């Protein structure tokens, strides 16, 4: 289902992947610095989640400014929260690369802004290829938002990601106060390409990991 989400005086293009049965939980998903919501990995994950009963809303927001992307992401969260069509108990925010930085930033801002209001609605964060540092610039880590987050966080990263060195991410994660998990895709680069494996094969691994983590966390909340 295609929708236009109001954002300032503009609209963001977005697509709902809707499960057959009425969903209780949703995932809001966005792309990295390049590309848009039709990036194959996002399409694949959205279809997988919807087929397993999770609503997925993916949106396009061009612009390379993280603050701008964060504002757009916030607008999408508000839109879904107030949606009459889908009454959800909660959502997970998810993004690829720069999109995951924006998602992390939204969670920090909402937890600071509203105290408890959004805490219950946002259930967790999924970071696909989180860009912890620029290539070859390991001294400057983009970890400030991660260290403030309290909700569960899943990282899915390639062990050969040139923007997220394995030891550095493990170091940051060990300092995080949130419940967290890293799933390493062996030998994958920042684009999740692995020599000798098809994209579909890698995506299947990512999709299964993301879904099983979502399920664990929803169950944890509602045991």
From TrEMBL:
Highest taxon in the source lineage: Eukaryota
Domain KANL3/Tex30 alpha/beta hydrolase-like, residue spans: 27-209
Stored Pfam families: Abhydrolase_11
Protein's UniProt name: TEX30 protein
